[in-house]
Amino acid sequence: MGGDLEVRLLDGGAMGTKAELMAEFARGLDLPGWFGSNWDALDDCLTDLSWLPGPDVVILIDRTERVLADDPSGDDGLRVLRRVVTGAGRALIAPDHPRFDGEVESLHVVAFHDPAHLAVSRVRLGDLLDGEAATF
Question: What's the CATH architecture for 5-128?
């Protein structure tokens, strides 16, 4: 990372369902009006981030034990979220990703959980908490 660092905090406790997750990402990242509140739109936004100052963006998600905990998709939603976030991070650092002055060059996502819920977080988030998630 170099230069300016933009840090955004998202409340995992407010992301119990997919709709709530999308709303929290929209709020916390000031997503543009064209954000469609679905996985493809979230992917599009995370691989762009041009409205945020850069070049490095850190997304802090607290209370991760609550992320999608009430969603009927269950762990499938968590797998999609993980795929979208890691895919966006990889896309931003890809050599063929277009670069423009001032645009975001890296994305880092840090997940926090209540220590009292560590066992639940490990089961639900698995390798995302065990170092599988890369810094981009």
Answer: 2-Layer Sandwich (3.30)
